[in-house]
Amino acid sequence: PEGAAMYNHVIQYALSL
What we know:
There is one protein chain. The chain has one helix at 2-16. The protein has 17 residues and is an all-alpha fold. It is rod-shaped, with a radius of gyration of 8 Å. It starts with a helix and ends with a helix.
């Protein structure tokens, strides 16, 4: 789902912090 892709993007952003 596209929503899951956006959520994964947010997760990767958090991990990058």
